[in-house]
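Changelog note: in this version the structure field was regenerated for every chain. One regenerated record is shown below for reference.
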Amino acid sequence: MKNKNQSDDPLEPGKFYILNNKYDEALKFFLNYLSNDPGNPEVYYHLGLIYETKNEIDKAKDMYEKVLSILPGHVFAKKRLDKLVGI
């Protein structure tokens, strides 16, 4: 049985790393997660955030585009991508 503080979100550890500015750990987490769930748009979205933070803009754009290819209505990925391409 889970206590009420435990999350049902399997991406929680990676998000925790991002919130604590541990981008290399977050990157490892999400890349590893991707090997088990390659169709998960949220994984690509968070990879985009990490790459954007690390100023790897081309990689960030690629990740946001991948999100939108899987889930065209992903509002946050669209906003981040639009910002990066200067729309």
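Spot check on this record: Residues 3 and 17 are 22 Å apart (CA to CA). The chain has a mean pLDDT of 93.
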